[in-house]
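Last lecture ended with a question: if I hand you only a sequence, what can you say about the shape of the protein? Today we answer it with a concrete record. The protein is TetR family transcriptional regulator. Below, first the input exactly as provided, then the predicted structure, then a couple of comments.
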Amino acid sequence: MDTDSSPDEQLTPGARRILEVASELFYWRGIHAVGVDTIAAESGVTKRTLYDRFGSKDALVTAYLHARDRRWRKLVLTTLDDAGPDPVARLLSPFDVLTDWLTPNSRGCSFVNAFAELTEPDHPGQQLVVAEKVWLRDLFRQLLQDTGITDADTLAAQLLSLHEGAIISYSIAGETTAANTARAAAEALITSAGPPPLARGTAPPSGPSR
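The predicted structure:
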């Protein structure tokens, strides 16, 4: 999904207000628990205005997930760019953003929460959820392949599991240090699996002896 442009950027101020209110309600109360009457009332608009702007509740749910997906990807990619050329730092970028992301999102992952509610496989919202998780796994895989690690598929799956597990540990089990714990485990996995350049503290080759 393009992180530089998004349909929500084209919304009118009124439609943006509806989306902001709906996003808060969907995240904190649940998608099925919140009806369009509640969204309209808390947005200060009529139901007709809501439908005029979004067409349906399903479309509003999809817009909510799309906006969160876009913000998440932009945050990860910005952190990745800031990491510079260090391969380990780049691989740990999705973990580095977790603490700041989780602090205001204590109900866990909005995508996982939505996946539990949107049971229809052809629902565009569910498709966005799947695409977000696949994107992160594929990002790990690509970064691993860039380092020369041979079994990038397996390690990418392990890193994704650590990442998603940290979110669950934080939001459900109350593990406030879950992001840092997962990051440390991810770093250990990466440095133990990679070639010498990934081993922190390993001196670079000095060249052939003469």
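Comments.
1. Confidence is low (pLDDT under 50) at residues 1-5, 201-210.
2. DSSP finds eleven helices and no strands in the chain.
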